[in-house]
Amino acid sequence: MGDIPPNQTLYVQNLPDKLKKEALKKQLYMAFSAYGRVIDVVACKGNNLRGQAWVVYDSVGSATTALRSLQGFQFFGRPLRIFFATGKSDAVALRQGQYEPKAKRQKREKAEREGGKGKETEGPRGGGGEKVKGNPVASGEVSSMLMAQDLPAEINDEVRVERIGRREEDEEEGL
User: Fold this and answer.
1) CA pair distance 111, 125, nearest whole angstrom
2) Which residues, listed in sequence order, are joined to residue 38 by a DSSP beta bridge?
3) Distance set, CA 99 to CA 65, 95, 108, 111 (Å)
4) Structure confidence at residue 154 (pLDDT)
5) Which of 7, 77, 89, 169 is least surrounded, with the fewest CB atoms within 10 Å of its CB?
6) What is the DSSP letter of 124?
7) How far apart, in Å, are the Cα atoms of 140 and each of 122, 132, 134?
8) How many Cα neighbours within 13 Å face the side chain of 17?
9) Is 66 exposed, middle or buried (0-12, 13-18, 19+ CB in 10 A)?
10) How far apart are CA 67 and CA 62, in angstroms?
11) What distance in Å separates the CA atoms of residue 36 and residue 94, rounded to the nearest whole number?
């Protein structure tokens, strides 16, 4: 795992599997947030994922500092093993406007492995200038969907709903 370039997501191993998932996520957040802004902690309790988690930072520098500082740190009596994650986390992809649902991403990757027999996905996310089939915004069609990106951390679901509701009221009043 030493050939993986630094990125915003850390892969953490040797975690205690006796903690409940939410307690583990909270403890990881508290330990890792001392080194920068943590935007996501993913911990699963399935048989294959027990004892591991992913911690996502807002910057590569914060992730690098945390990796160096917490490598071997005794976390509930076990030394942490930390590496840079091999891929981009969904939280980072979403912030960069490059998020692709897992099922769609797996289908595309399978097609690429089979020699590019799948559909081409050129456009804003694919890298080319052609239109993306099924994406109304990329194909120039009118869409009623609102896509919000890079919102401040203070904007939660309640505030978003409140503001969208206000905007609809303004449109009804002709403002």
Assistant:
1) 17
2) 57
3) 26, 8, 13, 18
4) 75
5) 77
6) T
7) 14, 10, 11
8) 11
9) buried
10) 9
11) 19
Q: From 142, 120, 116, select the one nearest 130 (Cα to Cα).
A: 120
pLDDT digits (tens, 9 = 90+) for 123-152: 444 444 444 444 444 445 555 556 666 677
Give which of 141, 121, 142, 143 is closest to 132, Cα–Cα: 121
* Distances from the Cα of 170 to the Cα of 40, 106, 155, 158, angstroms: 35, 42, 20, 18
100 touches 93 (CB < 8 A): yes
d(CA 21, CA 49): 11
User: Tokens 């979403």 belong to which residue?
Assistant: 94
Q: Which residues of the chain have pLDDT under 70?
A: 1-2, 93, 96, 98-99, 102, 116-150, 157, 160-161, 163-175
Phi, psi of 91 (to 5 degrees): -65, -40
Q: What is the pLDDT of residues 49-61, one digit of tens each?
A: 788 998 999 999 9
